[in-house]
Amino acid sequence: MPRFAALNAPRATLSAAALAAMVMGHAAWAAPVAKPAIPAAAASAPGAEAPEAPRVPEQSSLDGQLFYQLLIAEIQANGGDAGSAYQLYLDAARRHQSGQLYQRAVEIALRARAGEQALSAAKAWRQALPQSRDAAEFTSQILIVLGRPGELAAPLRALIQLTPTPQQPQVLANLPRSLARLSDRQVAAQVIDEATQPWRQPPLEMAEAWAASGEAWLMAKQFTKAMAATRKALALQPNLLTANLLAADMIGQQPDAEAWVKERVSRADAPPLLRLAYARRLASTQRYEEAATQLDELVKVQPEQTGHWILLAAVRLELRQADAAEAALKQVLARTEPAASTPAQPAPTSSAGNTASAEAASGDIALDKDREQAYLLLAQLDDLRGKRADALRWLDLADPRHEKMAVQSQRARLLAQQGKVADARALLRGLPESEPRDAITKAQAEVQLLRDLGQLPEAYKVLEQTSARFPDDHELQYDQAMLAEKLKRFKDMERLLRRVIELAPDNPNAYNALGYSLADRKVQLDEARTLVEKAAELKPADPFITDSLGWVAFRQGRLDDAAKLLREAYIARPDTEIGAHLGEVLWAQGRKDEALRVWRESQTRDRDNDTLKETLQRLGAAL
User: Fold this and answer.
1) Which of 66, 102, 284, 317 could cross-link to 93 by cystine, CB 3.0-4.6 Å?
2) How is 84-119 classified by DSSP, letter by letter?
3) What is the rounded distance in angstroms from the CA atom of residue 407 to the CA atom of residue 442?
4) How confident is the model at residue 65 (pLDDT cuts 50, 70, 90)?
5) DSSP codes joined into one string, 487-544
6) Rounded CA gap, 26 and 485, in Å?
């Protein structure tokens, strides 16, 4: 909504001639306008007879008094006395019942960052001219900026009502994103439901209104309410893309969401965006074979979309299907070929080829982002094939200046694999820092490198040093706590996690990590349950938090509750560690065949998972 650009607008300096012209332009503002006989929304309703347009009096009411009042107001506004200018315009607007004069009063207040004054003028505007769509829009926007959701429903409802019927679906669709800046997402969803209530029941019922409700509740993590609203939208309009995408977002959270999406993408006319959303959801839950199937279909329909090919290549790499991944990356390189391309260095021997221009290699031009991503994946591909020298050359093409963290982290990992650990660490430490946060990012990359090498004490030392430099960074404290647990320094871990909770009391991961650790060590189980329940309150339906709830229940001897929770978590996210936990609970219940089946499934995803290996060894289970 661009009108708030006035908040940051520079103060203009007007010449006398320009100022006079501006004030003369207000003659039209001051002309009294007859109120329409019926609301704009009703006038555009099907079957309604449009009223005759009201006549604007030919003679302007811009008398001498108003002329000089506006002139003085503009001089004061441009001279820095916004308060006086605002009051003059507001007074003139009230006397002349002029929407444009009200708008000018609002804009002056916004430019002066006087939010309450802007709101007062907007409310006065709405009261004086209740059929003004602009008044409703300004009032809504200002309330959102001021964080006043309690007053929002009425102006939002008026905004929808005063919008011509053909444009109402778009206004409804934009509501969740318009209210996204409100900190309390549940309150935002309630406001949207209240504002859209007339359009969620006959005779005005619209699928877009239900979809807006569904999206708002999804943003609030209230999945049951979100799915109920989405079902209503789909019942009214099965092909509504917004509602179908909402269903895709809730796969793993609501049992019927995936069935609906699978049915829609099975059709020949399936929207590519829905298929893409489904593929991404499958990939995010490690269902790579199914994701690849969807992406294969997608690139047939939209072969020109290089992003589809990149995602397909990434999925094929996860499946260790090197040739298929390379074939997808060839498509990316072919479609992002620079106009004039001359190889700048010996090409990697991969059959994907090297088509980077000399300018790109020297860093004189910015690489296409998709092409850069393709180079990164080609580096992973050659690393998978054991061609580490070629992998490094792909990384040189992706980042000729050697300054991008994502690329150089991968380069450092390759150097470390070649035994050049000191060089890898020096590379990361030497990366430029444009802001303090960059130092933290560099330290995190170095810690990950050391963790991958199994050098956990050294990684912990790096985190200690960085945390001393940034003692109030809760992400660093959390990373250090997780490493402390790996090193079995449990007192340090508890101290650090309690510090994270102190610094970021709305961080669900800290509550979950501390609660899970206590339960896993069979200590302070009541506190463990309280902590994990707090995490679930902050982040409902998260499968890893649900896993922790199940593990706490298991440690407390509540086997049926544990099995129910862990099965729910495993269905939502078939993660290897969750599978290890579910299998152990089933084993404890005497359902050993089912436990073995879950463990076998989990092992196919990550054979080297420490939790799964330890569980099988401790229970003496052979797969």
Assistant:
1) 102
2) HHHHHHHHHHHHHT-HHHHHHHHHHHHHTT-HHHHH
3) 12
4) confident
5) TT-HHHHHHHHHHHHHH-TT-HHHHHHHHHHHHHTT-SHHHHHHHHHHHHHHSTT-HH
6) 70
Whether the bond into 400 is cis, omega within 30 of 0: no
Chain-centre distance for alpha carbon 35: 43
* Per-residue CA distances from 264 to 228, 417, 622 (Å): 18, 45, 41
- 184 lies in a domain? no
- Distance separating alpha carbons of residues 194 and 151, to the nearest angstrom: 11
Per-residue pLDDT tens digits for 292-315? 999 999 999 999 999 999 999 999
Residue partners of 371: CB distance under 8 A and separation at least 6: 332, 333, 336, 356
| pLDDT-wise least confident of 21-35, 543-557, 603-617 | 21-35
Residue 83 Cα to chain centre, angstroms: 39
As given in the structure block, the two tokens for residue 499 are 């510090």
Return the pLDDT at 30.
40
Q: Are 424 and 416 in contact (CB under 8 A)?
A: yes
Examine residue 616 and state whether it is found in any structural domain, yes or no.
yes
Question: What tokens appear for 43 in the block?
Answer: 């006038």
% of the chain with per-residue pLDDT over 70 = 85
243: left (phi over 0), alpha (psi -120 to 50) or beta: alpha
DSSP for 165-197, written as a single string: GGGHHHHHHHHHHHTTTSS-HHHHHHHHHHHHG
The count of structural domains within the chain is 1
Tell me if 277 is assigned to some domain.
no
Q: Give Cβ neighbours of residue 259 (< 8 Å, ≥ 6 apart).
A: none
Q: What is the pLDDT of residue 191?
A: 98
d(Cα 560, Cα 572) in Å, to the nearest integer? 19
Predicted pLDDT of residue 409: 93
458-494 pLDDT tens trace: 999 999 999 999 999 999 999 999 999 999 999 999 9
Say which residues have a Cβ less than 8 Å from residue 309's Cβ, sequence separation at least 6: 299, 328, 329, 331, 332, 335
| Whole-number Å distance between alpha carbons of 472 and 60 | 63
Q: What is the span of the domain harbouring residue 587?
A: 531-623
Q: Where are the alpha helices (DSSP H) in 179-321?
A: 185-196, 207-219, 223-236, 241-249, 257-265, 272-284, 288-301, 306-318
Half-sphere exposure of residue 464: CA atoms within 13 angstroms, side-chain side:
9
Residue 106 has pLDDT above 70, yes or no: yes
End-to-end CA distance of the chain: 59
Q: What dihedral angle (degrees, nearest 10) is formed by the CA atoms of 197, 201, 204, 206?
A: 80
Can you list the alpha helix ranges (DSSP code H) found in 26-63?
27-30, 40-43
For residue 350, the model assigns a pLDDT of 52
Q: Residue 573 belongs to a domain with what CATH number?
A: 1.25.40.10
Determine the length of the chain: 623
The answer to the question of residue 522 being in a domain is no
Question: Residue 47: pLDDT above 80?
Answer: no
336 CB neighbour count, 10 Å cutoff: 17
With 60 as the cut, is the pLDDT of residue 448 above it?
Answer: yes
Give me the chain's average pLDDT, please.
86
Give the closest residue to 219 by CA, choosing from 264, 181, 272.
181
Cα separation, 49 vs 231, whole angstroms: 34
